Every structure is written in structure tokens, then in C-alpha cells.
């Protein structure tokens, strides 16, 4: 099996987002056939291509993708069981036709890519949307909400709905994110789902993947160290927590981490 590191350790534009997401899913679903799911995305894209109008205006392309994905195939956002880990595995999202904003967005991005209609991910706080990769296009797509088309003012309203208070839309909220960042956000979702379920072995596996994406990321090192502590693997816990302190010696939790290291000694 091709490793996650192999697929993600290359220039960002060369990372195959769907393939990378399916590679990490294979750790959870060992019998998963990655090529089968890539072929499914190809087939969906071909079916959309057959329905495209002759004038490929961005709005027309988006409406055509929306109709096929949400009306014909019945893809939808999982509003009833949002924190089900299956929502963060691309194979499950394709099989069940349901997911969370970021995984549904990956399906959409991959179809758009196969139509030579480049789109990018937008990692707004608390929500994930996409937009066509054209200068000043001014429109966004909320894949979680059936491909709802948004303008900038709609994005601000969406933020205020999420946080239940007035929020100003800062320009960097709408900055496109990289393939690495998308994968990192998907894995981070899983990490916290497994933390809440106290499924430490699976959480550990996810942190290992995050550290392949972002080597020596201090927060992931700290969290892995704390996990090793929970699992009573003192040497590994000590190594990670010491490295964390060497990178962030003045972190707010540094005194607590030093105390923990003292206890382990």
C-alpha cells in the first residue's frame, strides 16, 4: 500500500487529495480498494460532463454539479450524527452519500478537478466552503447545504449563525487553503472525535498521520506525549514532551508539562 507520507510529501499542487484521504481511510478499513473509489469519482465527473451546457460559465457549471450530486445522487450533509467518525472517511462519504462540510467539499473539489473546472477550499472558522479558482469570481459554494451559492455578505451571515453573535468577516477567513491544510483539518476532526470517545489507540494513529503531514508540529508532539502518558509509555511520553518544551519553552502549559516530566522521572 502506498503510504500517506509518500502521497503527501510532494509539492502541494501535486498531492492527490482524494487518494491521500483514501490512503488514511485504509488504516481504518483495511479491505478498502482505493482505485474503486477513484473510479467512482471519475464516473460521477463523466456523468456531470454529459450534462454541461456549451457555455461553461462558472455559475452554470456549479448548478450542473449541484443538480447531479444533490438531486440525482442525493448527497447530503449529516445533520443528525455530525460527530460520527465515518463522516471523516472519504470512502464512507462516497458510499453513504453523507458527510460533514469538509469531506463533502473534497468530493465536490475532486469532481470539479476532473471537469477541468478548478476550485479551491476555503477554511472559514467553524465551517468549510469552496469557490471557483478564478480571479474576482465573488461566489462561494456551501457543499454541506446542498451546494448553496453564497456571496461574501452571505459568508458573514453564516459565521454569525455558527457563533450566535455578531462576527465581522475578516479577509483571511476567505483565503484558499492548501491540500495539506485540508487533509490536516480532516484528520484533526477525527483526532478530537476519538479523544471524546476515549479511543486512544485510534487517536494515536491519527496524530502519527498529522505528524507525517506537519513534522515536529509542537501541538501534535505534546498531544502524542500526553497520549503516551495515558498509555503508560513513559519513555515515549518523555521524548515527545521534552521536544515540545524545546520548541515552545514559554507555552502557557509549559509549567504543567514540566511537572508531568518530573513525575515520570
From TrEMBL:
Coiled coil: none
Occurrences of domain Protein SirB1 N-terminal (ranges): 36-187
Record-linked InterPro entries: SirB1_N, TPR-like_helical_dom_sf
Family according to the record: Belongs to the UPF0162 family.
Protein name per the record: Protein SirB1 N-terminal domain-containing protein
Source lineage: Bacteria, Bacillati, Cyanobacteriota, Cyanophyceae, Oscillatoriophycideae
